[in-house]
Amino acid sequence: MQGLKQQPHRWLNKQKQTEVKTGGWLYAVLRLFIKMRVNTYKTLLDKYERVPKLVRESARNYSVIDKIKNADDAWWLLCDMYGHDVETEEVSYLLCLDTRNVLIGVFELSRGTVGNTAMNPREIIMKALMTNAVKIIVAHNHPSGDVTPSNCDIDVTKRLKEACDVMGLTLMDHLIIGDSCYLSMKECDYIPKTSAVQKVAAEK
Predict the structure, then answer these.
(1) Which residue blocks in 3-150 are alpha helix, DSSP H?
(2) 168-189 pLDDT, tens per residue?
(3) pLDDT tens string 69-82
(4) What is the full DSSP assignment across 17-37?
(5) Checking DSSP bridges between strand 135-141 and strand 103-111, what pairing results, if any?
(6) 3 state DSSP class of 103
(7) Distance between CA atoms of 79 and 84, rounded to whole angstroms?
(8) Is 0.90 topped by the overall pTM?
C-alpha cells in the first residue's frame, strides 16, 4: 500500500490481552491506582431554544490506562469498552482530549451499513468544541476486517484536518479498526503535518 510506514497495522498483543483480561497482580494494582473516567456523550436540541446541548449517556471508570497518549491507547479503549472491532456495521467514534491527553468525552458519531458510515467534519468540530477539547481522535471500523483506507476515508481525513486547523484543534489521528488490528492514517501520512489552510496562513 502506497504511504504505508513503519507497519501501521498493529496486531493485538496476545500477552497484553491475557494479562489485562485474566488478571494477575499487575492488573490488580492498575485497577486500584490508575483510573480514567470515560464519559460517553451525545448532542440533543434543547426543547425550548432548539440549540444543541451536551447530554451524558454514561460514565464508567477504566483502569487499564489513564490517558490517550497515542493510537494504541485509543484502539485499546475503543475495542475494550465499546467492542468497536466486533461491530457488524461501520460505526464511527470521536475521542475528545485536553492539552494533557486526558480523555474528556467519547461520542458515537454515526452508525452506518456494512460498507460505509458518515463522518461529517462540521458535526465533529461542533461536538469537540462543546466539550472544550484541544485534541481529537476519530475512528471507524471495517467489518470486513480489511483496514485498507477507501478514497472516501482519505478524503474525509484531509477535510477534517483542514477544519481542525481553522478551528485551532489538533487532529491526532484517524484510525481504521479491523480484525484484531488497526491502521493509523497519521502513520500512513494521510494526515499532513502542514495542511493547505496552514500554508495559506504562513504565506500571509
Answers:
(1) 14-22, 25-33, 71-82, 121-130
(2) 999 999 999 998 889 999 999 9
(3) 999 999 989 998 89
(4) HHHHHH--HHHHHHHHH--EE
(5) unpaired
(6) strand
(7) 5
(8) no
